[in-house]
Amino acid sequence: MSYTKTKMRYASLLTRSRDLHLEYYAFEYWENDKCELKHLLDYVPSREIIVNYTKTCQGKEELSISDLDKRMNNWDVNNKETVAVFYGRYKDEFDKILSFEEFKKFYGEDEKDRECDYCRIKESEIETLRKKGEIKTKRLYTRGLKMEIDRKNPFGNYSVENIALCCYWCNNAKTDEFNAEEFKLIAKLIKVVWDNRLTK
Ligand SMILES: [Zn+2]
């Protein structure tokens, strides 16, 4: 059994979770000149901060995206040393959110034929469709062949309760708009299309 790809996938979730943690923190405390490491490590963003930050990134708030970028960059520069230490320490924090053992159980070994939680397509079926010329996206070199990790509740973290295996197409369509239950309805029709292509 090999877990090299599983480890890489876990590492990418850790990075994403760490970056989000920093973004929410900097968004909430941008007025504080220097952040304290402990405060940063213990920080848990409120739902309100997550929603406000998301809206600001979408350009729906008074603060423009370029001002937000400036603010975040300033914060990064001011807190460079603390952020560097935080980078090293976040591994332990992420372990409390999602341990590698939990993730290994969820994601399986490298060779596992994973299936999308929403439209139920399997990686082996995507490969079959690719060989048949029934996959249209040009992104296939970078995404598509393997299942991705979706957050069921897009405003939650990568805890084992909140992650789902998700194909590239469902992930792209679900965005941070639909929660898992809502998207399952949409994915029923995506499944019809896959089944049609598979039996062509
Ligand atoms: Zn899917």
Structural descriptors:
Herpes Virus-1; mainly alpha; binds zinc ion; 2 strands; 2 domains; single chain; 200 residues
Radius of gyration: 19 Å
Residue-averaged pLDDT, rounded?
A: 93
Helix-strand topology string: HHHHHHHEEHH
- Based on the structure, what is the oligomeric state of the protein chains? single chain
Unreliable residue stretches: none
User: What does the overall shape look like?
Assistant: globular
Please give the count of helices. 9
The separation of the N and C termini measures: 35 Å
Strand content: under 5%
The spatial strand order of the largest sheet comes to 1-2
- What is the percent of helical residues? 55-70%
Instruction: List how many beta strands DSSP finds.
Output: 2
The computed structural class is mainly alpha
Domains counted in the coordinates: how many?
2
Say which molecules are bound, naming each kind only once.
zinc ion
Question: Can you summarize the main beta sheet?
Answer: 2 strands, antiparallel
How would you describe what is shown here?
With 200 residues, the chain is mainly α. It has 2 domains: 4-103, no CATH class; 113-198, Herpes Virus-1 (2-Layer Sandwich), CATH 3.30.40. 58% of the residues lie in helices and 4% in strands. The chain contains 9 helices and 2 strands, in the order αααααααββαα. The protein has helices at residues 4-28, 37-42, 47-57, 65-78, 80-97, 100-107, 123-131, 168-174, 180-198; strands at 148-151, 163-166. The chain has a two-stranded antiparallel ribbon. The structure holds zinc ion. Zinc ion binds next to α8 and α9. Zinc ion binds at residues 116, 118-119, 121, 167, 169-170, 187, 190.
